[in-house]
């Protein structure tokens, strides 16, 4: 295909995206997604699943654009409850709570919400543009990732514990290992061998394991409500938050272009790896912002850079996650699995044809994402920021509402057989999270263990099966160069905090 032909197809896709009723479906999808994403425990996959049967009367392009718009809106919407009430609407928004919620606590909810909207939309816009320009190259990069690389990416995320843990490193590692232990509950993915199911003791089975979304709801939403129960007044503790404008938040994002762009591309690249997803990318981007900062101790206390990194990576992941879904029919997350079902339901077969015969449709999705990011920016700055008044409402009204929403979210996570398990998980982890905060155990390290444990274990087993049990598959620079590079990065993260003081001292004495 010549450049002129590709440009012609792109302009045809632009025409489709801006035609009626396509533009209307983009707006509807974004707004529905924001609402669903803001409700703890629901998230983009459930929102897209709800919308999927409603797309049957639509043209294939409009149907897929609607689903993608719901996906994009929900990924942004998860930050709203995360910032205002420490209740991440999606698992990817867990990293947003670390600095977004402390900003609300000190009366800066308006600024935090404007930072979230600006960072999400700009990073999403740039990553989609990059995706359009470099999609053939990015497809080759995705093909280079196999089970060893998936395992090492998960290990890289776990290594971030050494960077992001505050205070005692022992407490950080303990919290991380506790998170990993939770992922060992249930039947393994590679052998029919139940582990720690306690069937005889509990009267019901834990064969399906513990839902990490339920863990996140309990760890953040319920634990924070337990904490607020001992306070009087609103979340912002009486501080004025409705004065001013969204301009300071916009300026904050624009004054950190390196973090914005770097985190967006981290999200895009990790999102393109099947099975990694936005949760992994946001934590990796957040950890990288901590590592690169001159003031790492301020993270977790309302540092704007941490919020920018998390939100940039969050929406940057969306474009990347479409690469394996459209190119190989390999969904990288639950949301893209629903999107894959929508593609097949409407007669669109994922594969090379999506970048040849169906290129107009593919580019139409990308253009819809670009338009969606503009809508997110407008809605986020001029509508969602008004919701910061919630942080002034007395906690006597907020606490029961959040607990009910959290339990409703847990109720709908999995099938009827797991309903009460997920509810008890939310309540139990709420209590554990409360005491972890009280005794300064790293919540971030715990979440990293919960999110990455299953990914690491599954791909470690697959890698060792491929190599016949040989660990050299991870450190072979000739046959596995990408794995070798990842191992070097992991070693750097583990050793860096140890040698950094000595290097700083040596440079100061020069």
Name the poorly predicted regions.
none
Class inferred from helices and paired strands = mainly alpha
pLDDT averaged residue by residue: 80
This entry's quaternary arrangement is single chain
The share of residues in extended strands comes to under 5%
- For the record, give the distance between the C-alpha atoms at the N and C termini, rounded to a whole number: 57 Å
Summarize the structure.
This protein has 510 residues and is mainly alpha-helical. The chain has helices at residues 3-17, 22-38, 43-51, 60-85, 94-105, 109-144, 147-159, 161-164, 169-183, 199-202, 212-228, 247-254, 257-271, 277-292, 304-328, 334-345, 359-382, 395-411, 419-438, 443-466, 481-508; strands at 186-187, 194-195. Helices cover 70% and strands 1% of the residues.
Give me the secondary-structure topology.
Blueprint: H1 3-17, H2 22-38, H3 43-51, H4 60-85, H5 94-105, H6 109-144, H7 147-159, H8 161-164, H9 169-183, E1 186-187, E2 194-195, H10 199-202, H11 212-228, H12 247-254, H13 257-271, H14 277-292, H15 304-328, H16 334-345, H17 359-382, H18 395-411, H19 419-438, H20 443-466, H21 481-508
Antiparallel strand pairs: 1-2
Helix pairs in contact: 1-17, 2-3, 2-4, 2-17, 3-4, 3-16, 4-5, 4-6, 4-15, 4-16, 4-17, 5-6, 5-15, 6-12, 6-13, 6-15, 6-17, 7-20, 7-21, 9-20, 11-18, 11-19, 11-20, 13-14, 13-15, 14-15, 15-16, 18-19
């Amino acid at each position: 295909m010549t450049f002129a032909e590709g440009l012609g197809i792109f302009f045809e896709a632009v025409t489709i995206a801006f035609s009626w009723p396509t533009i209307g479906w983009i707006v509807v999808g974004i707004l529905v997604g924001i609402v669903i994403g803001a409700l703890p425990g629901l998230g983009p996959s459930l929102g897209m699943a709800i919308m999927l049967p409603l797309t049957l009367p639509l043209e294939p392009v409009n149907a897929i654009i609607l689903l993608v718009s719901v996906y994009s809106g929900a990924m942004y919407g998860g930050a709203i409850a995360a910032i205002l009430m420490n209740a991440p609407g999606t698992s990817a928004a867990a990293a947003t709570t670390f600095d977004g919620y402390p900003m609300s606590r000190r009366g800066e909810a308006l600024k935090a919400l404007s930072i979230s909207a600006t960072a999400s939309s700009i990073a999403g816009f740039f990553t989609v543009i990059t995706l359009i320009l470099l999609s053939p190259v990015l497809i080759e990069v995705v093909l280079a990732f196999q089970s060893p690389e998936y395992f090492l990416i998960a290990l890289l995320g776990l290594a971030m514990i050494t960077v992001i843990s505050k205070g005692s490193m022992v407490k950080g590692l303990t919290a991380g290992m506790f998170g990993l232990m939770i992922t060992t509950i249930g039947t393994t993915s590679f052998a029919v061998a139940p582990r720690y199911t306690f069937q005889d003791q509990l009267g019901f089975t834990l064969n399906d394991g513990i839902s990490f979304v339920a863990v996140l709801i309990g760890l953040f939403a319920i634990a924070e409500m337990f904490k607020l129960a001992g306070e009087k007044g609103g979340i912002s503790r009486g501080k004025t938050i409705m004065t001013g404008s969204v301009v300071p938040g916009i300026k904050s994002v624009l004054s950190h272009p390196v973090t914005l762009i770097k985190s967006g591309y981290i999200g895009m690249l990790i999102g393109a790896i099947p099975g990694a997803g936005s949760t992994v990318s946001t934590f990796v981007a957040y950890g990288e912002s901590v590592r690169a900062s001159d003031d790492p101790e301020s993270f977790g206390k309302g540092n704007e850079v941490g919020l920018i990194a998390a939100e940039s990576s969050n929406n940057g992941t969306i474009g990347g996650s479409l690469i394996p879904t459209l190119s190989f029919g390999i969904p990288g997350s639950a949301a893209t699995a629903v999107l894959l079902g929508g593609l097949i339901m409407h007669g669109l077969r994922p594969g090379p044809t999506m970048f040849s015969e169906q290129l107009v449709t593919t580019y139409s999705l990308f253009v819809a994402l670009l338009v969606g990011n503009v809508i997110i920016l407008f809605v986020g700055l001029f509508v969602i920021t008004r919701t910061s008044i919630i942080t002034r409402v007395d906690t006597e009204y907020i606490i029961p509402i959040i607990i009910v929403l959290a339990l409703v979210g847990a109720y709908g996570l999995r099938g009827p057989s797991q309903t009460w398990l997920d509810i008890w998980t939310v309540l139990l982890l709420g209590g554990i999270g409360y005491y972890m905060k009280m005794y300064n155990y790293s919540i971030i390290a715990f979440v990293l263990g919960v999110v990455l444990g299953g990914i690491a274990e599954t791909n470690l087993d697959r890698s060792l099966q491929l190599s016949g049990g040989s660990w050299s598959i991870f450190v072979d620079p000739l046959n596995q160069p990408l794995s070798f590079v990842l191992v070097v990065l992991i070693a750097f993260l583990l050793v860096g905090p140890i040698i950094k003081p000595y290097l700083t001292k040596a440079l100061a004495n020069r």
